[in-house]
Amino acid sequence: PADRPPPVDIPAGDRAIAGRLWRAPGAHTIYALGHGAGAGMHHPFMIAIAAALAERGVATLRWEMPAMTAGKRLADRPAVVRPLARAAALHAAALAPALRLIA
Q: Which of 5, 11, 35, 37 is the one with CA 20 to 30 A from 44?
C-alpha cells in the first residue's frame, strides 16, 4: 500500500539510515521529511503528511533517526541529527534529480 512504500537505505557517512520513498504521480517536488522526537517515520501523522503531500504533487522521503530505529526513548542529539538530515536531503535529490528539493 501507499502508506508502506518499500524501504530505502540512505547513505550517511559510515552508516545507512532507514527511509521510505513515497512517489507522487506527476510530482514537481520532493520533500526530505524527518520526524520529531516523539514518534518515528511510521507514525500515523507522518503517513498522513506524506499522503496529503502526494495528492499535491510532492513526493516524500521519510527518514528515521537512529535512536528511534534502536527503540530508545530519548531523541538523538542535534550533533547526530544535523548530518543525517543533510544526508537524507542529498539522497532525496539523488533519487529524484528532476524534482525541486525541500527539506
A: 11
Cell triple for 92: 532525496
Give the C-alpha separation, 20 to 80, whole Å: 20
Rg of the chain, C-alpha, whole Å: 13
Q: Which of 16, 18, 22 is nearest to 7 (CA)?
A: 18
Q: Between the CA atoms of 56, 58, 59 and 60, what dihedral angle is there, to the nearest 10 degrees? A: -110
What pLDDT digit, counting tens, does each position of 69-100 carry? 888 877 888 888 899 999 999 999 999 999 99
User: To 10 degrees, the CA torsion angle through 54, 56, 61, 67?
Assistant: -90
CA dihedral 70, 78, 85, 42 (to 10 degrees): 40
Rounded Cα gap, residues 61 and 12, in angstroms: 14
